[in-house]
Amino acid sequence: APATAEEDLAEEEEEAAASPSTDMPDCPPVYDPSQTYSAGSLVEVHQQTFQCRDELHEPWCNEPNWSAEFEKRDANAEELWHSAWMYLGPCAPVTLGEVMDMVALVEEIGGDV
User: What is the Cα Rg of the chain in Å?
Assistant: First the structure.
């Protein structure tokens, strides 16, 4: 057993580094203001993952820019707009090599790309 808190933390860091579960998840599709998002939608912005919170926030997930005009339709618009996307954490961008591997696999099994 580790003798000090420092050794304990070092041991935990080593275990975490060795564990594949600490790998960052692949990034979801990049946020696109021309798309329509629903509750639960995942998007990527600068290699960070965000999720559209719920049905209450859904309309605000589809408003890329704030406008004071929104307050005419909902008195809580500003709060809802600012909290529409929940930050989930960093993600790993899918590389071109990974995309090419997926394309090759699909072609190998006779699928259309």
Answer: 21
Tell me, what amino acid is at 39? A
Q: What is the pLDDT of residues 53-106, one digit of tens each?
A: 999 999 999 999 999 999 999 999 999 999 999 999 999 987 777 677 777 878
Residue 49 burial (10 A CB sphere; 0-12, 13-18, 19+): buried
Query: For residue 87, which amino acid is it?
Result: Y
Q: How far is CA 110 from CA 62, 97, 99, 105, in A?
A: 37, 20, 17, 9
The pair of structure tokens assigned to 113 is 């790309």
For residues 70 and 77, the answer to whether their CB atoms sit within 8 Å is yes
Is the pTM higher than 0.70? no
Burial 95-110 (b: 16+ CB within 10 A, else e): eeeeeeeeeeeeeeee
Report the distance separating Cα 27 and Cα 43, nearest Å. Answer: 8
Q: Look at residue 74 and give its three-state secondary structure.
A: coil
